[in-house]
Amino acid sequence: MRSIGIIYGFVANHHLRAQIEKTRKLADSNFRDLRTLLNGAPAEISYILSQYTTTKEKAFSDLDNVKSLLGGGIHEQLRPKVIPALDDIKAMAEAIKETKEALLNVNNTLKELKKSSAQLNTSLSDVKRDLEQSLNDPMCSAPPVATTCNNIRTSLSQLDDNTNMDQLPSLDKPIDKINDILQTNLSSLVQQGYKSFNDIPEMVKNQTTDIISDVKSTLNSIGSDIESIGEQIPIQDQLSNFMGYINDTETYIRRNLPTLEEYDSYRWLGGLVVCCLLTLVVIFYYLGLLCGTCGYDRNATPTRRGCVSNTGGIFLMVGAGVSFLICWILMTIVVLTFVVGANVEKLLCEPYQNRKLLQVLDTPYLLNENWKHYLSGMVFNKPDINLTFEQVYSDCKENKGIYGTLKLENSYNISEHLNIQEHAGNISNDFQNMKVNIDNIVLLDEAGRKNLMDFSFSGIDAINYNIYLAELSKAPTKANLLSFADDLEVKANHLPHGSLKQSLKNNAQTIRTIHRSEVIPLEQSMSSVYQSIKELQQKSSGLGMKVTNTLSSLDSAQDFLTTRISSVIVEESQKYGNTIVGYFERYLQWVKISITEKIAACKPVATALDSAVDVFLCSYIIDPMNLFWFGIGKATVFLLPALIFAVKLAKYYRRMDSEDVYEDMENGNIGFHRHHSTQTV
């Protein structure tokens, strides 16, 4: 156990020397951090305040884009109600043109159909007449040819035209009405409505030129105010006050550190000597035990003990003698180091670590009987402000800004100077008082409305389309001409050769030609016109209701523009103004947070204080000192039992000059006498 105490002493003595050698590096590191804190704060403040330029440029960009941002916002608010109404009118204008084209197409096609139908009727009449003449041939009087001729004569009625196109009324009157309607260019009027509505952003831009100029002037003046804030913030003044203390402290440490290192070398040498003396005593005891144990002979008399055993006893006695010589020195060193180390540990180190020391320093009127709070009295000369060492230390440990840590708002309240209402109140008022007049928007004038009403009364929806559809759905002829021609040719083949047979075959061929060249094109034209009339019927169906709905939608949109446009302008103006003001609200809030919580983060101050007290004093000096007195004290405590043990044990190891002799007496008396001799070391 004593050896362990000596090892503690060696370790503590060496550790203290090693830590003292680190003092210079520790001090340089802390002073470098403190200077960085002091020198970096102005640059940080300048950087933060200079970011106003970025915010202002963003605001200027939005102000320059008032056409798209404010005008476009108003336009988009009105668009869902206005554009559908204009689209309906535009579609109606297109429908008028398409209706005219459809009517013209149907009317022209009907005229062609009438001509084609008349031509077909003429061709069929010619064939029919030719057949009748052929059937007047004398061969038709003699049976059995007469029967065939009669059958053919009976079937001639199938060659009649099956349609009556001439009864279909002409579409010239509806077309004339559409032409009259188209004299007013409804599409052009609708485009004017589109243009009038789409010109809203440009109108907003033209009417807000003066307001935008005033807002920009206000923003420039805000920039000047913000720049002046950097000069008024007392952070630099407070940091400058500490610069002198830092310089003096650094100069003092650099001047006295060599002396401290020199004295520490003496201390280290003295501690080494003490530990070596203790080690020497231990070595004597170990050698005494080793030699005494190895040379001990239990059968040898005290005067005849061996040299090795005697040497062990001598080592034990030498160790005991050295213990007597250095014991008082060790006790003195232990007492002194204990008094210093233990008291500093209990009165300074532990209270500093649990912050009770700072609480003691914060005791009102302790450090200055006239100041309730010493720190606030020293910083602001206002001792009534609740600024404590514990609070400052805690904030610095959390790396908070020096503004909030030292409560510099008591000297310069940045919240008041960064109040958005103070700086941006004029901007908000400008946007709230913005007057934009866009009440003169007309989506469709009276000419356009009359044009739509005329179209609804054009009579297109009153046309009897069923007559046309019924007539056009008929076949051009009563019978299929191809079947009729084939049947005619079969009957002719049963006739004897002659002019009648040849005439009937020629007529059959003529009928086929009529079917191919006239009937088939006529059927195709009739089918095409049938589809066109069906489409025209669908388009004109409910025309009056469609026009009424379109006009109703137009009136609703126009009324919406008249009644709601003012509120939309106010709403969008406030939104636009809030966007501009929002840039500065966020910027000023960021400046406030940065200055109060981040700029000049004072963790280097807490680190420097920890380095001076917790690291240098407690860890570098007091902890090794306490380990040293503990180790040396532990070794000293075991000196007394080791001393007693060594003296007692040396009696059994050392060689004696004489020994106790027992003799037998005459007459039965038993007695003894002891020869005493001195033992020399």
From TrEMBL:
Pfam families (UniProt xref): Prominin (PF05478)
Sequence intervals crossing the membrane: 268-292, 313-340, 627-647
Keyword Membrane among UniProt keywords: yes
First-listed, main subcellular location of the protein, grouped into a coarse class: membrane
Bilayer topology annotation: Multi-pass membrane protein
Subcellular location as annotated: Cell projection, Microvillus membrane
Swiss-Prot/TrEMBL keywords: Coiled coil, Glycoprotein, Membrane, Transmembrane, Transmembrane helix
Coiled-coil intervals: 89-130
Family listed: Belongs to the prominin family.
Name the UniProt record assigns to this protein: Prominin-1 isoform X5
